[in-house]
Amino acid sequence: MPSRTYRAEAIVLKTHDFGETDRVLTLLTRHFGKVRVVAKGIRKPTSRLAGYAEPLMHATYQLARGRNLDVLIGAESRAMYRTLREGLHGIAAGWYIAELADRFSVERGPSAPLFDLVENALRHLSTGFPPALVCRWFDLHLLDRTGFRPELGRCVECGRLPDEVTNTWSVEAGGLVCARCAPQMMGGALALSVRGLKSLRYLLVSDFENAAKLRVDEALAAELEHHLRAFLQNVIDREIHAARLLDELARLPRAVAAHP
C-alpha cells in the first residue's frame, strides 16, 4: 500500500486564497508534475509555513495525499531568490516565467526538464542577469522542451535556407519564412532582421552561461520580445498576463522601476 505522505521538490507557480484561512498552491514539482495542494491555516498570523506558500518559493514540501487536493504538512527551503524580489523588473520577470510554466505544464505529467528550466531561469534572474535576456532564453527553451520549437533553420514554406536579408517571422506557419515566400503570406507575419534571426538561433542552442554573452541593444531586445511573445500567445491561445506588467515597467523611468 503506497504511503499517504510524500516529499516533493517544487517551485510555487501561483496561489489563491481559499476559505477564511487556507490557500491553494500550484506547485511545479521535479518528479510528480504540476500538483495543486491546499495549505490549511496558512493565512493565520501564527502559521509556521506561511513563508513557503508564496509564488516563486523553491522548497522541498512534505505533502499528504487527499481526496481532491493533497495537503501541505511541512516544508524545507531550498531557494528564496531574495535578490530577484528587490526590483520590479526581476519580480515581474519571475511571474512571467511562472505563468508560462503553468500554461505549458499538465497536472501529474512528466516535468523534470521543465522544472530544471524554470529553476535555471529564476536562479539567473536572482543572480542579477538582465530580465529581458533571461526571459527570451527561457521562451525559446520552453518552446523547445514542450514540443513547440519554432523553425529557425529553413523556410517553413519552401524548405530553403534563407538569404542574409530581412526575412519574415510567422507565428501561424511556425517560424521563419524566407524573403522569397514572404509576399505570399496572407497576414500576421512580422519582419525578421538578420540580427534577430541569428540571435534567436544562438539563444536556442546555448546554455544560459553562453547565452549571457549575447550583446542585445534596445532595438534587438524589442524585436525578440515582440516575436517570441506573439509566438507563445499563439501556442497557448491567450494573453500572457505578466507581460502587461513588463510592458508597463518598460515605460517607467529606470530609477522608479528599480525599486518596488
Question: What would your notes on this structure say?
Answer:
- 35% of the residues are buried.
- It contains eight helices and eight strands.
- The protein is α+β, with helices and mostly antiparallel strands.
- Helix content is 37%, strand content 22%.
- A hairpin with a 4-residue loop joins strand 6 and strand 7 (175-177).
Keywords:
260 residues, alpha+beta, 5-stranded mixed β-barrel, 8 helices, 8 strands, disordered C terminus
- Write down the overall geometry: elongated
Give unreliable regions as ranges: 255-260
Main beta sheet: 5 strands, mixed, barrel
For the termini, the CA-CA separation is 49 Å
Give the beta-strand count: 8
Binned strand content: 15-25%
Offer a quick outline of the entry.
By secondary structure, this protein is α+β, with helices and mostly antiparallel strands. Helices cover 37% and strands 22% of the residues.
Blueprint (SSEs and pairs):
Layout: E1 5-18, E2 22-29, E3 34-39, E4 58-64, E5 70-79, H1 88-104, H2 112-127, H3 131-145, E6 167-170, E7 175-177, E8 189-192, H4 194-205, H5 208-211, H6 218-236, H7 241-250, H8 254-257
Parallel strand pairs: 3-5
Antiparallel strand pairs: 1-2, 1-4, 2-3, 4-5, 6-7, 6-8
